[in-house]
Every structure is written in structure tokens, then in C-alpha cells.
């Protein structure tokens, strides 16, 4: 499956608000989408709670994997964006 690695852009990491935004986008995209910190186990990107278990802080590299390359790009863009600044 296609994947890419991107650094977390949110100033406080993937806490509740960014995790919820990412999970909603993943659920809307459908299919299998996972996030993982490098070297860690992947979690379901459609679950905000699972995303928060990654403990990913600003600048942490996260691997985004999905069945569709466009979905990988869309979710990776969200991970890299400071979702608390909006």
C-alpha cells in the first residue's frame, strides 16, 4: 500500500482537536487508512482515540498509509498542518 512520512504540524501534537479532524477525514475517505510513529504499530486513522495513543508531538514523524495514493496525500497534508491555528 502507498505510504508517506510527514512531520506533525500542530503546535501541541496530535491531541483531541487535530485527531478528531484527521479521523473525520479518514472516515469520509473510506478504506483502510493507518497512522504510525516511525518504528511503532499502525493505528486506525478513523479513530481519534487511536490517533491520540500515538503520543505524536509537533515535529514527530508519522507514517501515513492507505489503499489510495490521493488519500495518503490528503491525510498527510492534515497531519502536517497546524490544525489548532484554524
From TrEMBL:
Domain HPr: 1-86
Keyword Cytoplasm in annotation: yes
Keywords: Cytoplasm, Phosphotransferase system, Transferase
Species, as recorded: Gordonia polyisoprenivorans (strain DSM 44266 / VH2)
GO molecular function, one term: transferase activity
A GO biological-process term: phosphoenolpyruvate-dependent sugar phosphotransferase system
This protein's name: Phosphocarrier protein HPr
Chief place of localization: cytoplasm
Pfam families: PTS-HPr
CDD domains reported in the protein's UniProt record: PTS-HPr_like (cd00367)
A GO CC term assigned to this protein in UniProt: cytoplasm
Protein role: General (non sugar-specific) component of the phosphoenolpyruvate-dependent sugar phosphotransferase system (sugar PTS). This major carbohydrate active-transport system catalyzes the phosphorylation of incoming sugar substrates concomitantly with their translocation across the cell membrane. The phosphoryl group from phosphoenolpyruvate (PEP) is transferred to the phosphoryl carrier protein HPr by enzyme I. Phospho-HPr then transfers it to the PTS EIIA domain.
UniProt subcellular location: Cytoplasm
Keyword field contains Nucleotide-binding: no
